[in-house]
Structures are given as C-alpha cells and as structure tokens.
Design goal:
Blueprint: E1 6-10, H1 20-23, H2 28-34, E2 37-40, H3 43-53, E3 63-66, H4 75-85, E4 90-93, H5 106-115, E5 118-121, H6 127-133, E6 142-147, H7 152-169, E7 172-176, H8 182-192, E8 198-203, E9 211-216, H9 217-220, E10 233-237
Parallel strand pairs: 1-4, 1-5, 2-3, 2-4, 6-7
Antiparallel strand pairs: 7-10, 8-9, 8-10
Helix pairs in contact: 4-5
Length: 238
Amino acid sequence: MGNLGTLYLLPCPISDETTPWEVLPAANKAVMDRLDYFIVENTRSARRFLSKAGIARPIDTLEFRELNEHTAAGREVEELVAPLLAGRSAGVISEAGVPGVADPGALVVEACHRRGIRVVPLVGPSSIILALMASGLNGQSFAFNGYLPVKPPERAQAIRRLERRAHGEGQAQLFIEAPYRNAKLVEQLLQVLAPQTRLTVAVDITAPGATIRTLPVGEWRRVALPEMQKRPAIFIIG
C-alpha cells in the first residue's frame, strides 16, 4: 500500500453571527488551504463556511461528499474513505462546531482508525466544552447525554435519572434539545428538578447575544428565563 492521506477534523463557527477567524485559530487556514476533498454534514453550509474563511482554492474546484444521519455505516462510509487510501487527504466539517462530537463525523473517523489512516483534530469551538467551562459545575467529571426523550413522561424519567447521577456521583450532566423545543424542556426541568439542584442554561454560545447562567432551580423559578426559542442551547444539571 502506498502513502495514505490524512483525515483532518476541521471545526467551524457555532453561530452564524461570527466570522470563522473570530473563533478559529489562524493556523487552521494553512491546513484548509491544502485540501480539495471534504467530507461534510451539509454541503451548502460547508461551502459557505469555506468561502467565508477565504481559503486559497476556488470553492468550485473542491469535492464535497456528505456524511450525515442518513449515511449508513459500512459501504457508504468505506466509499468516503477510499480516496484517503489512495493518498488524498480530507477535511471533515460538521454543521456547527467540532466534527465527531454529537456529530455523524465519528463514523468516518472510526473507519480511518481501522484502516491505519492518521486522524488529526484541529482546535475550534465546541459548544459542549464551552458551556461546561462557563458553568461552574464539575469539570473533572461530566457526561454528555445528547437529546432527552421528546414525550413528557419519558423525559421526566430521564431528567430524574440525570439528577440522581449529578447528586450521587457529583458528575455534571449535559444535554441538548432541538431549538424549537427548548422552552418546553426548560419548563419541565423547573417542574421536575429539586429546588437546590443547579441548572446551567447556555444559549447562543460565541454569538454576540450569548447567555450562560447557572442558578439553583429554586432561583430559576423566580427569575426571567433567557430568550431561547429557536436558539441553540446546552443544558447542564449539577
């Protein structure tokens, strides 16, 4: 087998209100300028990101292949990796933030490890890590739980389970919701959680109007909640 390509994991901004170089290290551009093959969650948003970043190559000369929640593990992923086996390097771009974390990019990363292809993560904004950093909750032990169930009875059970873990193990419990359901989720969090349980609500991280606040649930019940409808948010129980 000849030389293998390298898989680069390329972070992009979380918020549309920030430009790439407000939130990404300048050193990332040298890597992005070298690549002509991109494995992306969404072609349109990836093209827009690379265009805003001012990369060296014309966007129309680049090849984009999609890897999203509809991509089947197996043959489809192997086809994405095939150019790297032939020596061509690739960049993975998520819809927002860092690839491979709460993101389907992990499928192609796993396939590259199986094939002995070098994987290089670049530095950039992760809403999960940024929310935890700013929460004041336990940064030594934490878990990201993805989405909670949609139906209220199952969601209430999940909230109680995370609260028990937060209190019993001292482990911060992070989760997310589809932005249009944020208000319903917070309403139920304030109903179900104990007054002394701490809750972080982090909305529009890195955007000019970002709000990150941690309060005991009893206090959250008495204050005005941040505007979060249709705005990306991270929630943490601690």
